[in-house]
Amino acid sequence: MLPPQRALLAFEAVSRLGSIGAASRELHVTQAAVSQQLKSLEQFLNCTLFIRNQRGVTLTQAAQQYLPVVAGSLQHLKLQTQILFGAQQSDVLRIKANTSIGHNWLIPKLADFSNKFSFIKLDLTLVDWPSRQPCSEADVEITNGFIDSEDTQVERLCQEQWLMVCSPAFQLQHLDALANKDISQLPAIQVKGYEESWMQWLCHHDIAPEPPNIQLEISNSLHGLEAAKQGIGLMLVRSLVAKKALTSGELVLALSGSMPSDSGHYVITANKRSAKVNFFCDWLHQQDIDSAMQAIFSNA
User: Fold this and answer.
1) CA–CA gap between residue 19 and residue 24 (Å, rounded)
2) Which range has the top average pLDDT, 13-27, 85-99, 188-202, 234-248?
3) Contact 29, 46 (CB under 8 A)
4) Rounded to whole angstroms, how far apart are CA atoms 288 and 284?
5) What's the rounded mean pLDDT across residues 157-169?
6) For residue 154, what is the enclosing H or E element?
7) C-alpha angle 191-216-263 in degrees, rounded to nearest 5
8) Beta bridge partners of 50
């Protein structure tokens, strides 16, 4: 028996997004239409798939077992369709990414994407600031902040944390001051354009609001991290950008603890996505970034 395709699409979208409303927006249909498709699938299978509540929907055990089958089949269908018919569209995916996140996080992962989607060529541009007209010169943008546009859709990449980092040598040199959380006389690196401040970080941790001395102002986090590795001073940096250097041991946490970031990195695409953009965005969602961030804190 073969379930109706529209019902399977609705089932996969609701399961992945966690709500009928979010699925209806992605599928460009009404919530009533999505609910009807779910009902028809449940009737077809003679099985309850969702428990509805005020917060959204919860998958039953049967639905949890069925989801990998449906999601895998749809992904395989999308992939084979692109392989067979993708030559009718441009096979180049233009990505514009923030310099720091592109260098420290995205580029090291692109081999995995290319292995899975070898028919998609990548054109990557690294920039310091979001585009004034998002996605006018790129298919996907991953930027630090974003500029609103009615022609694009925006989703946050992950919830990042502010960390205070330094080089291992700097930590040893200023061990007593750091142990006493007395950083007012220590040199520091400041990245231009950051919205959150040293004062916010200190107050968040109930430390005397006396910030360090800014020894160096610099244009982006990538170059700031290099300066921190050379022992120039302390640096406040967001966790996703710092992950590589912390994992390798080139940088350490100067003080334990973190502060949730109000700002962050965002994925921006046109409202109407091509197949290659969907492949890339689906791949991004599979990276499990939040778990990687927790690993940093547990190992620090």
Assistant:
1) 9
2) 234-248
3) no
4) 8
5) 91
6) strand 152-156
7) 10
8) 59
- Whole-prediction pTM value? 0.60
Side-chain half-sphere CA neighbours of 186 within 13 A: 31
- Sequence-distant (6+) residues with CB within 8 A of 220 are 98, 99, 100, 128, 191, 192
DSSP state of 105: I
Residues 262-294: pLDDT tens digits?
Answer: 877 889 999 888 888 988 998 988 776 654 445
Per the prediction, the chain carries an average pLDDT of 86
E strand or H helix at 295: helix 289-299
Range 194-200, long-range pairs (CB < 8 A, 24+ positions): 194/236, 194/263, 195/262, 195/263, 196/162, 196/236, 196/259, 196/261, 196/262, 196/263, 198/236, 200/259
Do the beta carbons of residue 187 and residue 232 sit within 8 Å?
Answer: yes
* Rounded Cα–Cα distance for residues 79 and 73 (Å): 10
Encoded tokens for 237:
């940096």
- How many CA atoms are closer than 13 Å to the CA of 126, on its beta-carbon side? 12
**In this structure, is the dihedral angle defined by the CA atoms of residues 175, 176, 180 and 182, taken in order, positive or negative?**
negative
pLDDT confidence of 215, banded at 50, 70, 90?
very high
SS (H, E, C) 205-221: CCCCCCCCEEEEEECCH
Sign of CA dihedral 32, 37, 38, 40: positive
Q: Which amino acid is at 67?
A: L
State how far the Cα of 251 lies from the Cα of 4, in Å rounded to an integer.
53
Q: Give which of 156, 149, 102, 153 is closest to 125, Cα–Cα.
A: 102
